[in-house]
Amino acid sequence: MKPTAYTFESMKKRAAAWLLEGISPQRLALTLALGFVLGCIPLVGVPTGLCVVLAVVFRLNLPAIQAANYAAMPFQLALIVPFARLGGKLAPATHAALDFSALAQSPMQLMHASSSVAAQLGVMAGQALLAWLLLAIPVVGLLTLTLTQVLRRVPAVAEAKARGLLS
């Protein structure tokens, strides 16, 4: 089986097909915006499940939200450190900086250091999640407005309106 390459043209065709299925441009734009923003959560592995839950609960287009989620993966990885830094400024932790010097010591020091490092990484993940939460809602709003305008210019929308699929 040959893997599918996602090009701009193939994404346009998929969006047009979704619009022809009766999804309004506003609903599709919201679905894509939610998928993209959820895909940027600074916790690796979490966005896919969240997108499935949101799609089922709010009856969103599951392939569309997952496509946007997967498109955001490079951004997710690139934004982990900036989110952690911003979260660290918003909610400073009371612990010392990460110390890896104990990793070269005895097994007992290694066990103590690993629990300390895990706790510090957990705090950093919480700080990064806080920063993401503060930015997520405005970004979803802006992306939804922008994508709605873009999707209204897709020729498939005019065709869907002509068929009576959209109001």
TrEMBL record:
Residues 14-152 form the DUF2062 domain. It holds the Pfam family DUF2062. It comes from the Bacteria. The chain crosses the membrane at residues 28-58, 129-151. Keywords: Membrane, Transmembrane, Transmembrane helix. This is DUF2062 domain-containing protein. It comes from Occallatibacter riparius.
